[in-house]
Specification:
Blueprint (H helix, E strand, L loop, with lengths): L1 H15 L1 H18 L10 H133 L6 H16 L1
Length: 201
């Protein structure tokens, strides 16, 4: 906007001093042709050069503001949006990776807990089975020992009965043959029992 105002002011100034400028330019051209100097350094042409400079600057500013600057701003905005989208994607990927890691650790913890539980169950079942087998074995051994002891006691009682009867018979026979005394079997058994009692004592 300022460039356009400057350009308008320069055009108006140029219109008012056109005639004077024309005379000055004619004189300058004559002097230039006479002296052969470089036109941009000619002080008589500064006003005209300033006018065209302002006009060119205004046109350039207009083109820049309408074409180049919006394109640059659009490019910067697009780049900003791309960077923000990339950062958002990176954050999302990081969050997803963190969630996956947490889920993996949770599965591992659950698997370990399940394995420990199964091991404890197997250990408890093994201990119970071993205790049951041990108790059964002990019961079988105790029964075998009791049966053997009962059998031994029966055999011992039978052997003692046989010894008592044999000893009584021998006592009756010895009393008849040696002493000529007839001893009843009951008396002989009592004598044997008395002798066995004394022997045991």
């Amino acid at each position: 906007m300022t460039a356009f105002m400057l350009a308008d002011a320069a055009v108006e100034a140029g219109a008012h001093g056109a005639e004077a400028a024309h005379g000055a330019e004619s004189a300058a051209h004559g002097a230039e042709h006479a002296s052969g100097g470089f036109p941009p350094f000619d002080p008589t042409l500064f006003s005209s050069q300033l006018f065209w400079f302002l006009l060119a600057f205004g046109i350039l500013l207009y083109v820049m503001s309408k074409k180049a600057l919006p394109a640059v701003a659009q490019t910067l905005e697009k780049r900003k949006n791309t960077i923000e989208a990339d950062l958002a994607g990176a954050r999302s990927a990081s969050e997803a990776a963190e969630a996956a890691r947490a889920g993996h650790e949770k599965l591992i913890a659950e698997a370990r807990a399940k394995a420990r539980g199964e091991i404890e169950d197997v250990r408890a079942k093994s201990a119970a089975t071993m205790a049951e087998q041990t108790a059964k074995s002990e019961a079988d051994v105790a029964k075998t020992i009791a049966d053997a002891e009962a059998k031994i006691a029966t055999m011992r009682a039978g052997a003692l009965a046989n010894v008592r009867a044999t000893a009584s018979d021998l006592a009756v026979e010895i009393a008849q043959k040696i002493g000529g005394v007839t001893v009843s079997k009951e008396d002989a058994e009592r004598a044997v029992d008395a002798a066995a009692g004394r022997s045991a004592a």
